[in-house]
Amino acid sequence: MIVLSETDSQVAQSLREELALVEARFAVELLSDLPCINELVGHIERYRGKMLRPTLVLVSAMACAEGCEAVTDAHQVVAVVVEMVHMATLVHDDILDEAAVRRSGATVNGLRGNETAVMLGDYLISHAYHLCSGLDRQDVARLIADTTNTVCEGELLQLANRENLALDQETYFEVIRRKTGSLCGVCCRLGAMLHGRDPAVEEAMHAYGEKLGMAFQIVDDLLDLLGEERTVGKTLGRDVQKGKLTLPLIHFMEEAPPKDRADMARMLREEACADRTDKHRRELIRKMLEAAGSIAHARTWAQRLVGTARRSIEVLTPSPARAMMEEMAGAVLQRRF
Predict the structure, then answer these.
(1) What is the phi/psi pair of residue 68, to 5°?
(2) Which of 23, 64, 174, 206 is most buried (most C-beta within 10 Å)?
(3) Is residue 51 within 8 Å of residue 84, measured between CB atoms?
(4) How far is Cα 165 from Cα 265, in angstroms, rounded to an integer?
(5) Residue 105: phi, psi to the nearest 5?
(6) What is the spatial distance between Cα 156 and Cα 159, in angstroms, rounded to a whole number?
């Protein structure tokens, strides 16, 4: 869970209890009569770290309740569904990135190969929609399906721009809005929607989640450049190796002097051709980005997005749950793993 402190002990305790139920329902839904599948599902349990997306569903439900039952069974189901969708994207992302480590353990593709990882991701997606179809709200199921399509579009847009050293910031923001912001946004929208809140509140909640998710992705991209694998717990440097430009690099290629841009382009090409990340080259890239103000530029954008997220939920009645949402937004900026 991404919350760093307990804004209100009762809300925090309720949230812990609801998340424990999400974990239990997740395990029951994926249970198979085939031991080999249960073993794989057990392996990806370690992927569950911050549980950001189910947390967003639950805390949004609490903030939007206004006299109703804080978290309904439908909220619980949606929280499980979005976690399944997210886990599927992680399994598939590891294939695309040829990553060997996630949450300080072997990835499914590293352990069992790409074929197994592809099918496990599909298994998670199919179970997500099987569970979602049990809701008596067709509009909810369609919204989650539409959002999953948007996530895939974001990934495809990023893949289409691999090794594009002329990638602009506008396209980058569109990638992360679709790839990360859209699912976080729908988590918060559904928290309000399942309580029957009016469209203006739904839109505000969606804006909160979308902007928080985008800030989260910027910080994640910074960690890929600046973090230590033993701290972050996953394979780092894959964005550069796979030719995926993130905000600091895009800013550098737009703003740095021509010679520095040429040097950076050469190092990026060398890194993409290398079998593994060169620590010296990675450190040189980091220093050049810092000297050009590109790291600071990315952090500033993350701060702006968090500020926008916080302002979005001012439409809600002040409450401990709303205060926790404000704290969650700020906690995104403090991520170290």
Answers:
(1) -85, 170
(2) 64
(3) no
(4) 7
(5) -135, 170
(6) 5
As a whole number of angstroms, the distance between CA 144 and CA 30 comes to 19
CA-wise closest residue to 222 among 297, 306, 307: 297
Which backbone phi and psi does 27 adopt, to 5 degrees?
A: -65, -40
The C-alpha atoms of residue 304 and residue 270 are separated, in whole angstroms, by: 33
Phi then psi for 157, rounded to 5 degrees? -65, -40
Sign, Cα dihedral of 43, 22, 124, 203: negative
CA distance 183 to 18: 20
Q: What proportions of the chain, in percent to the nearest 5, are helix, strand and coil?
A: 75, 0, 25
Please name every residue paired with 106 in a beta bridge, in sequence order, or none if there are none: 101
Residues in contact with 206: Cβ distance below 8 Å, sequence separation at least 6, in sequence order = 185, 186, 188, 189
Residues shown for the chain: 337
Of the candidates 224, 3, 195, 186, the one whose C-alpha atom is nearest the C-alpha of residue 79 is: 186
Conformational region of residue 277, where left means phi above 0, alpha means psi within -120 to 50, and beta covers everything else: beta
Summarize pLDDT for 191-234 with one digit per residue, the tens.
999 999 999 999 999 999 999 999 999 999 999 888 765 555 45
pLDDT in tens, 34-69: 999 999 999 988 777 779 999 999 999 999 998 778
If you ran DSSP here, which 8-state letter would residue 105 be given?
E
pLDDT digit string, tens, across residues 94-123: 898 888 877 768 899 988 999 999 999 999
- Rg of the chain in Å (alpha carbons): 20
CB atoms closer than 10 angstroms to residue 323: 15
What is the Cα–Cα distance from 97 to 120, expressed in whole angstroms? 16
Distances (CA, A) of 92 to 107, 115, 120, 189, 274: 10, 11, 9, 25, 22
The β-bridge partners of 101 are 106
Closest CA to 337 of 15, 13, 52, 19: 52
Question: Dihedral (C-alpha) 328, 329, 331, 335: value to the nearest 10 degrees?
Answer: 120
193 close to 173: Cβ distance less than 8 angstroms: no
Element (H, E) at 101: strand 101-102
